[in-house]
Design brief:
With about 600 residues, the protein is α+β, with helices and mostly antiparallel strands. Helix content is about 25%, strand content about 20%. The longest helix has 17 residues. The chain starts with 8 loop residues before the first helix and ends with a helix. The model has no long low-confidence stretch (mean pLDDT about 95). Oxalic acid binds next to helix 7.
């Protein structure tokens, strides 16, 4: 596009200013068209960034392999630069915004030499939604442009909505790899030194500056950066919530539909849950979103959730026809795969895909791979980027500008012991306590050691854009914004329990519909429950286990209250709460005390 397709003076000036600073060779305004997407994909094929897959097997699909240093979100390089350190809180990295800007202006200086700077106008939320937010991302990565076209509403229509005077979240992204004249580019340019990557948020200015990484959550700035970190801070001021949650619709055989939001830490099977194929006959699950929910009080006093994204950026390894048949159907075409293996037929493969490993393949690093070579073929955090509209179980209301009314919130994590299969909160405050004490074994979604218990309140630890203590208070305050009876019921679930011998106790996947059925019954007032010290648990005959092989002994363990385990749990929650000091709401201290008393510990 040669002419500037906007009359928004602020936008034009800012684009000029950043182009000058970064010394970009060209500025290109994205129109969001299919032709533009196709052209950029072809350019990336030529540059070696994209490998086209076999067009008969996977039409419109491409494979990208990242640099080995650039495979996950970099939480230790992620900053919340509020004016006051206290406002970022103990769970975020903080730096003085002015100092950070000075330092990063140095990094950005000349960083796009030899590259095109793409201007990506995008909307988080359907364009006709009154709560959608517009962002403009300036990036030197074509990979980011094509991914953003899938993950957000992107292009000309957004500029039209912005008009001459509209405001937007300023997002700057550079891979941090300028090209000298004549220098040959690499397939995945980035800053290989981890200490020089920065993912920085300025919540008061609603601006995002990212440098050095081309990978998903670090580079597609609409997602974690805008729709969670910046949005959570806006939401607190405006009285709504930006959450790391899936949105799904459950319909019973009698045709009763309930919408549920669920928060699980990264890589705990959110996408699998969001598109689940229930094993219980007559039940259906429809998907509205697999990662982020923006939630507000509707006119009728209920909480309404909307998915601000338009695509899925899902973890590939482990996705199979068993774990997520609907995701497998979603990615049959027009999907970008990152860091998966390439088969000799030109198709993709990853560990636990449910089909035998190919006799040989090219692994995610581009090396020859055989099943006995001792290395994984796909990176554990390999991803697919696919349009939500391709999901066979996408709900008819997924683009409803008003969102959908929520009947229940689920929290959960990977917890091999102590935490029962499902547990219903006694009250909103108890539910907030449950959310605040969410924890999970770490996975490959972020760099760091996998397999250790990490407290991840509301699954928002890496995504809350302000002080987590204030965030807890914000959740509690929702009870004052509506009639309590209109608030969703809160549940804690755990699909990941293991026996002392290390065997999975619960089959998970489609059988989680049995737990969801009980959740629906509790919402409707019919589910059978027993009141325990930790919450309301299903009675022995409360869950529909028809046709399931799980033994009564396993079920007993899954629904037991283990006082010793809870003793340790309470000590750990307490230690985590200590971090929040005076900002820990009294209501949560009271919940912790109440739990101790009920357990007699
Ligand atoms: C994600 C994450 O990519 O939570 O969704 O890490
Ligand atoms: Mn996520």
């Amino acid at each position: 596009m040669s002419t500037v397709p906007t009359t928004n003076r602020k936008l034009m000036d800012w684009v000029k200013e950043v182009a000058k600073l970064t010394q970009a060779a060209n500025v290109y305004w994205c129109d969001g068209s299919q032709a533009e997407y196709d052209r950029l994909c072809q350019e990336m094929v030529k540059a070696g960034t994209f490998t086209p897959l076999n067009q008969k097997l996977r039409p419109g699909c491409f494979l990208a392999r990242s640099h080995v240093s650039d495979v996950a979100r970099v939480e230790d390089r992620t900053y919340i630069c509020s004016q006051a350190k206290e406002d970022a809180g103990p769970t975020n990295n903080w730096a003085d915004p002015n100092e950070m800007k000075t330092m990063m202006t140095g990094l950005y200086s000349g960083c796009m030499q030899g590259r095109t700077m793409y201007v990506i106008p995008f909307s988080m939320g359907p364009l006709d939604s009154p709560i959608a937010k517009i962002g403009i991302e300036l990036t030197d990565s074509a990979y980011v442009v094509v991914n953003m076209r899938i993950m957000t509403r992107m292009g000309k229509a957004v500029l039209d909505k912005l008009g001459a005077t509209g405001s937007f979240v300023e997002c700057i992204h550079s891979v941090g790899a300028p090209l000298k004249p004549g220098q040959k580019d690499v397939a995945w340019p980035c800053e290989p030194d981890p200490a020089k990557k920065y993912i920085v948020h300025f919540p008061e200015e609603q601006a995002i500056w990212s440098y050095g990484s081309g990978y998903g959550g670090n580079a597609l700035l609409g997602k974690k950066c805008l729709a969670l970190r910046i949005a959570s801070s806006i939401a607190r001021k405006e009285g709504w919530m930006a959450e790391h949650m899936v949105i799904l619709a459950l319909t019973s055989p009698a045709g009763k539909k309930h919408y549920v939001c669920a928060a699980f830490p990264s890589a705990c099977g959110k996408t699998n849950l969001a598109m689940m194929q229930p094993s219980l006959p007559g039940w259906s699950v429809k998907c509205l979103g697999d990662d982020i929910a923006w939630i507000r009080v509707g006119e009728d006093g209920r909480l309404y959730a909307m998915n601000p994204e338009s695509g899925f950026f899902g973890v590939a390894p482990g996705t199979s026809n068993q774990s997520n048949p609907n995701a497998m159907k979603t990615i049959v075409k027009d999907t970008i795969f990152t860091n998966v293996a390439l088969t000799p037929e030109g198709d993709i493969w990853w560990e636990d895909m449910g089909i035998p490993a190919p006799a040989k393949a090219i692994d995610w690093e581009g090396k020859e791979w055989t099943p006995d070579c001792g290395r994984k073929a796909a990176h554990a955090n390999a991803r697919f980027t696919a349009p939500a509209a391709q999901c066979p179980v996408i709900d008819e209301d997924w683009q409803n500008p008003a969102g959908v009314p929520i009947s229940a919130f689920l929290f959960g994590g990977r917890r091999p012991s102590t935490i029962p299969l499902v547990n219903e909160a006694f009250s909103w405050e108890h539910g907030v306590f449950m959310g605040s004490s969410t924890g999970s074994e770490t996975t490959a979604a972020a760099l760091g050691k996998a397999g250790v218990l990490r407290r991840d309140p509301f699954a928002m630890l890496p995504f809350c854009g302000y002080h987590m203590g204030d965030y807890f208070a914000h959740w509690l305050s929702m009870a004052g914004r509506t009639d309590r009876s209109k608030l969703p019921k809160v549940f804690f679930v755990n699909w990941f329990r293991k026996s002392p011998e290390g065997k999975w106790l619960w089959p998970g996947y489609g059988d989680n519909s049995r737990v969801l059925k009980w959740v629906c019954e509790r919402i409707e007032g019919t589910g059978k429950a027993v009141k325990t010290a930790i919450g309301n648990l299903p009675t022995a005959d409360g869950l529909d286990l028809s046709g399931l092989k799980t033994t009564p002994e396993d079920m007993k363990q899954l629904l037991a209250v283990d006082p010793e385990g809870w003793n340790a749990e309470i000590a750990d929650i307490s230690a985590n709460y200590d971090k929040f000091g005076a900002k820990l709401p009294a209501a949560l201290k009271k919940e912790l005390e109440g739990l101790k008393q009920r357990l007699g510990v």
